[in-house]
Amino acid sequence: MIFAPEHLIIAPVLIPFFAGALLLIYADRQRQAKMLISLVSVGAMLVAAVELLIRSKGNGLTGGNDIGFYLLGDWASPYGIILVVDRLAAMMLVLTALLALPALVYSAAGWHRQGQHFHAMFQFLLMGLNGAFLTGDLFNLFVFFEVLLAASYGLLLHGGGQLRVRAGMHYIAINLAASLLFLIGVSLVYGATGTLNMAHLSNLVAGLQDQQRALFHAGAAIMGIAFLVKAGIWPLSFWLPTAYMAGAAPVAAVFAIMTKVGVYVILRLSMLMFGAGAGASAQFGAGVLIAGGMATVAFGLLGVLASQGLGRMAAHLVLVSSGTVLAATGFTVAGASPQILAGALFYLLGSTLATSALFLLIEPMSREEGGIAAMLALTADAYGLDEREEDRQPEIGIAIPGTLTVLGLCFGVFAMVLAGLPPLPGFIGKFGILRGLLGSTAVSPVMSWAFTALLLLAGFATLIGLVRIGIQTFWASDGEPPRVFAQEFAPILLLVVLLLVLTVKADAAMRYMQQTANALLQPSIYAEGVLGAPRAAENGDAKAEGAE
Amino acid sequence: MEAVLSAAIGILAASGIWLLLRPRSFQVIVGLCLLSYAVNLFIFAMGRLAIGAPPIMPRGGFVNPAAYADPVPQALVLTAIVISFATTALFLVVLIAARGLTGNDHVDGEERAP
Description:
Oligomer: heterodimer
Helix content of chain B: 55-70%
Number of helices of chain A: 22
Distance between the termini of chain A: 13 Å
CATH topology of chain B: Helix Hairpins
Helix content of chain A: over 70%
Shape of chain B: elongated
Number of helices of chain B: 3
Mean pLDDT of chain A: 82
């Protein structure tokens, strides 16, 4: 393969794909080598994602809305599969890489030897995530969803044990059923419109006949259910807390972005198909998203208050976060100002990082109680690992002094982000949403005030819940402080630093979100760009190659 | 032909959903299989039903598109079959693991008190 800058677009899919395949060759005993390969892969992914992000910002000439295309196999645009990277996709790629890095480092402290092929599955999960963010084709989206789901099934079961297997069985059954709904939806959309290309669909929607439009709406709604199951909208979210709680800490930390894949797809497809230019289909599904999002926030809020442990609480915080973004998406589809969307994207970034960090904190915080250690020993037994002797050796790592203080400070930062206290990103995001909402005339005041109240209440409930846990762990605890290894500390600190950077650079980040939101509200730019994407062969460039 | 096919899809889907809601894990997996058959047939039907129409056109010359079947749903069905087969196999492994760990085949791992 001759390296050319345009091939960089497929790099976030190919890097973890090859790394994952390579990792399968190594035996599980060679953990150092596997860890190294995984780290190199995630590092390369991060570099590629950041480069794509910089590119998608574009230059002054294109109005800061550069869209990159990659025609797989060099098929002309609406016929072949196309990868599209715009500002939103680039942002999600960077977020994925930024979440993967701490989770991977964290797993070095011990989790990655609790089962087999942790690293390979981790890479395949990243491949599925990146592919889902990049693809511009509905059926290809299904394929990438299956890639990430298959990897997530394996990762959820990582470590074994009865709780995980039971939660995993529910998780797999629900996701298999959701995938079938996805397929029904995709085929209905194809039957009604004759295309699977998102950009092509976006152009066709306005001109559909009534009969086709009914079928198309049915297909879109059925597909929407599949995405909403993944996003964890209220009546479809009962699987989520148990599954996230059962997952191993680094697994749960990457799973924090899995709900966001559902949210991302809903956002992308709603904006492309049901935006203002969609004729009779405009604003389709907005009401469901608003009501469902608000119900999800309410459910998450009650769940946070009712949870006894940090794990269950963090899982409900995931629900609050995805509910907020879903409702904000609904408001935007209903015609509210792009400010809401910008705020919601900012909130998504901050809250995903913070929930992921909470999942990493659970284990160090509760280690002194012996619960996790006992469970680890138990699961290792149940799994029948051969490396029993190795596990008895003292763990490789440096215990850090002043553990409780640093852990407590980190916990405080994450709690402030999630509750939305100034000056951290949670506040900025929520403030952006509320400012856009209250200044908007497209939304009925009842709805906007109800959402405002709900958002503030959710912040309050988060604060109560997390402070309660914090007091129990950091102030009211007696006995030995937990032993925490550097490999566990580093990722948590990294996430704190990221959140602080996001706070300090809030101006630049918010501007990026604002332009992303503006670009999303003009689906014609995306659609025309994709349909006009030049083929390499037409450029007199004979490097056409089928990458997959 | 349309009536037979739609009845077949309907019966498969209905039996699949009924089995999916049953408490035994084996029933759930059979339900998922039946549902995936229904979905595969449904995707195929979305390419419109035609008799004696091949999906691949000959190279060159004039071709009448109406004499050919839509190849896209057929390609989609192939992908969907492979993927659902693989995920069902995976689910089967988890089912057996759950059976071994909990000692019964209830989806919740324990029998509901009568």
